[in-house]
Structure formats: structure tokens, C-alpha cells
Amino acid sequence: MTELPYLRMRRRLNELVGVPVWAAGVHLKTLRESHAADVHALLELVYADGGGSVSSFEEWWPSLSQDGEYDLNLCFSVCDEKGGLVGFAQCWTSAFVKEFVVHPSIRRCGIGRALLLHIFGIFQEEGP
After folding, report:
1. Of 8, 55, 82, 112, most Cβ neighbours within 10 A?
2. CA distance 20 to 110
3. Residue 106: which H helix or E strand, with range?
């Protein structure tokens, strides 16, 4: 059996999901189109380390931003105190987490957990 480079999971959104606790020195912000190239670079770095892949920026950004389920408010960036991108999640309007990455240098600090809890909270607020 071939191992897949992604994890498929489901989460009941009618249950409490918890409050995100962010690691010291990081903060969450909504993606700005001007930061798309930084996000793409992080995706390339993480996927190269983890076995996945992302198309070239020239293919990736139009494909993402023109998709019917794309909503800029459902794309979340996690930045360090210097403003450097250390995490990213892209979600579809159907409550699907499409991309989810944390920079290898800052893993195991709770950033992934906090980001997922934030996303689950957003999905709960917006409902089905």
C-alpha cells in the first residue's frame, strides 16, 4: 500500500473544540494577496520535506484565488515576532482544510494545534 502525503480527518463541529493557545512570539493574521509568494515558498519548503508538492507559483496562485470555494478570509497565516511566515492554512467555504503547514524550524510548539482549533472555531461560527 502506498502511503499518502496527506492526512484525512473529520471533526464534529457541534462539540466544543477548545480555545487556541498560541506560542509566545507568534500571531495569527488573515492572508493578504501581497503575501501569496511567501505562502507559496513555505508550501514548497514543507512539501519538499514531507513528500508532497505544489505547482509553480504562476499556476498555484490563479488556481487557488479563482476557485469557487476560495475565500481570502479562510486563509490564515501565522507569523513570528519579526513578521516571518511560520505557518499557513487554506480552507474552502465547504469547511475543508486544503493546505496546512508549519515551518519545520518551529514545529512541536503548539502552532499546528492552535491553528486547527482556530479553524474549527471559525467553521462552528459559520455553521453548515
Report:
1. 112
2. 9
3. none
Backbone angles phi, psi at 84, to 5 degrees: -75, 140
pLDDT per position as a tens digit, 12-57: 666 767 888 888 899 888 788 888 899 999 999 988 877 778 899 9
- Cβ–Cβ < 8 Å for 121, 20: yes
Which residue in 25, 45, 24 sits closest to 88, CA to CA? Answer: 45
Beta bridge partners of 101: 88
Q: Which long-range contacts (CB under 8 A, 24 or more apart) does 68-75 make?
A: 69/93, 69/94, 69/96, 72/30, 72/31, 72/33, 73/30, 74/122, 75/30, 75/31, 75/39
CB atoms inside a 10 Å sphere around CB 84? 14
Domain 27-126, what fold? Answer: Aminopeptidase (3.40.630)
List strands edge to edge, sheet with 27-30: 27-30, 75-79, 85-92, 96-102
Of 126, 114, 128, residue with least CA distance to 17: 114
